[in-house]
Amino acid sequence: MMQNIEADWPVLAGVVVVVLLVAWWLLRRASRPAPRVHRPDVLDEGAAPAQRNQALIDAAPLASAAYAIPPAAGTLGGVAEVIAAATQDELAAAGDAAAAAPDQAGDDLTRIKGIGPKLSSLLATLGVTRFAQIAAWTEADMARIDAQLGSFAGRPARDQWIEQARLLAAGDQAGYESRFGKL
Q1: Calpha distance 48→59 (Å, rounded)
Q2: Where are the transmembrane segments (predicted)?
Q3: N or C: the chain end with fewer CB closer than 10 Å?
Q4: What is the residue range of 115's domain?
């Protein structure tokens, strides 16, 4: 073995030099910071304003009778009587008055976890002011409302508004608190 090393020392020295050069090159390359690249966005000075979703802005509010959410008869168990109070006929009778001013005599929707004052007022402009209305939502109704919630999109499903509204519309405070926590 020693004889091979003595005979091939120039090759061994060359391999050591190459390994040291590669190690030096890799360490030098890793210690350099990556170049910063500026990508302009809408907050930069002089940038164009952000795109608006004009379809949502032009959409008719839900307060009109054509968009009223009918109660689901017989599907909610003992809550059907409470839901009947918010029938489509009553909403149609309210007509333009309901569209001009949201129903102030509605339920306190902020009792539903996930609905704060801003979201409650947004729902009121969409014509949703009662627990019974939310409790009667179908998947299609929830998708239609969710599309108009803007930055609050996804909250109805994530926060289980329909289940909460069913319990609150029925006046089942104990059932609500056992499932969703203290009111």
Answers
A1: 25
A2: 7-27
A3: N
A4: 57-180
Buried b (16+ CB within 10 A) or exposed e, 44-81: eeeeeeeeeeeeeeeeeebbbbebbbebeeeebeebee
Tell me, yes or no, whether 83 and 173 share the same domain: yes
Structural domain count of the chain: 2
Sign (positive/negative) of CA torsion 74, 139, 151, 59? negative
Distance between CA atoms of residues 41 and 49, nearest Å: 10
- DSSP character for 129? -
**Tokens found for residue 21:** 């050069």
Q: What are the per-10-residue average pLDDT scores of the chain (183 residues)?
A: 79 93 88 76 70 71 55 51 53 49 71 93 92 93 91 92 93 91 86
Separation in Å, CA 125 to CA 39, 96, 103, 145:
38, 13, 9, 11
Whether residue 47 lies inside any domain: the answer is no
Q: Are residues 13 and 70 in the same domain?
A: no
CA dist 94 → 57, 86, 87, 151, 172 (Å): 24, 11, 11, 29, 29
CA distance 24 to 98: 76
